[in-house]
Amino acid sequence: LQNKDLDRLRAYRENLDFYNGVQWVPDSLGRRRERRLTFNYAKVFIDKITSYLMSGVSFVVEPSEDTPKERERAEGAEQALREVYQQNNLELLDFDTEIDCAILGDAAYKVIWDSREKRVRITAPDVQGLFCRWLGDDVSRIYRVASRYTLSAEETEMLHGVTPQSKQATIIEDWADSSFTLWIDDQIRSSRRNPYGFIPFVIYPNLREPKRFWGVSDIPQVMEPQRELNRAMSQLSRILELSGNPIAVLENVESAEDIAVQPGAVWTIPEDAKAYLLDLLQGGGVKLHIDYMDILYRILHDVSESPRAAFGGTPRDLSGVALQVELYSLLQKVHRKRLIREVAYKKRNEMVLRILSQKTRQNFLGLRTRIIWGTVLPQDNLRLVQSEQAMIEAGIHSRRRSMRELGVADPEMEFDQWLEEERKLKEVR
User: Fold this and answer.
1) What is the pTM for the complete model shown?
2) Closest C-alpha to 279, from 255, 243, 319, 306
3) Helix (H) or strand (E) holding 102
């Protein structure tokens, strides 16, 4: 693995450094000759798009057949999944993973059974340590995944019962559908049958590049305008600094001593000499710099597909369709990302249900999950309630479906509570 995917790993490091504010290209000697300002819009854009993307996501388990037995099985699977989500704090893990995915271009989940705690454990391994193999030109058919990471000597001994020779040990997990091999410091420590029967990794891209397995980061498209904005801002900052500490210009003077620009200063110069202060702000030069930075600012918003309205600033009050049109580029980007995330979350839920079926006495095989995304733009809840009420009365939507559309986290529990209230009200009457 030392010489595998070097270009991908190098791009990961560059994107991560840029997100963390390392945005200036050093000179040939590696020196920094002047003050350099960094206005990290790249980080702001990624954090903003992630907030819009993850604004409310839930799921529902659908029965394979519309029968009482299948509906009961689906309800049990949904409850089991919710417990797994709570045990693993997936709401926070998903948000952190999404930011990582937008920066690097790829993300992953690992779904395994924790034999000590007797529960499903979901983690988000670093994709910088993941290496995959797929069949031919079909990038969706992964037949082998290697996961490389490091552990301290104490962790290695606690987890694997092996004392490494150094303070850290390199662990490599080699997964295939039918086998699992554990390497510790280039030595095979365990080789056995895969206990799950499938590779327990969900690897997905930030944005899909056609015919390629690994994804595209949000960083590269904003690198050039971001660097140019930093340069222009630094240049304007130096001009303003020099204007506040003006430069004295002396003409026809062979030598000068003790020339200081300060209130009440008296200069003695020859009769035919001239002395004046250099005005760097004359002729409207500063406005040219500001206009240029405004252009760069618009370019940044355009290439990142995050209009100024996404940050709460609009030249006029907008609502409804007008706001949606203003944010349409952002909505399209969120939609593209959600298409990819939906497939990943469904696959993760499927792995959880398969492991629960293997390790518990419950049978959740054959059930499908549907991902429900929250609305990106603010909604008029009263209007939505009236619309869903009309749908229920017309027999188009069930009460459960309307609850999901309105963002209720657990429609089954709400429906049961509603039935209980209706029963009590009938007894009182």
Assistant:
1) 0.81
2) 243
3) helix 90-104
- Inter-residue contact 170 to 185 (CB < 8 Å): yes
pLDDT for residue 254? 65
Over the stretch 158-200, which tens digit does the pLDDT of each residue have?
Answer: 888 888 888 899 999 999 999 999 999 888 999 999 999 999 9
CB 351 within 8 A of CB 202: yes
Please provide the distance, in angstroms rounded to a whole number, between the alpha carbons at the two ends of the chain: 74
Q: Which two tokens stand for residue 368?
A: 């499908």
CB 385 within 8 A of CB 101: no
DSSP letters, 346-359, are: HHHHHHHHHHHHHH
> Average pLDDT for residues 402-419, to the nearest whole number?
76
| Alpha carbons 311 and 145: distance in angstroms, whole number | 40
What residue has token string 């854009």? 45
How far is Cα 119 from Cα 288, in angstroms, rounded to an integer?
63
CB 193, CB 200: distance < 8 Å: no
Residue 333 sits at the vertex; the CA angle it makes with 331 and 335, to the nearest 5 degrees, is: 70
Region for 166 from its dihedrals, namely left if φ exceeds 0, alpha if ψ lies in -120 to 50, beta otherwise: beta
Site of tokens 């990302």: 337
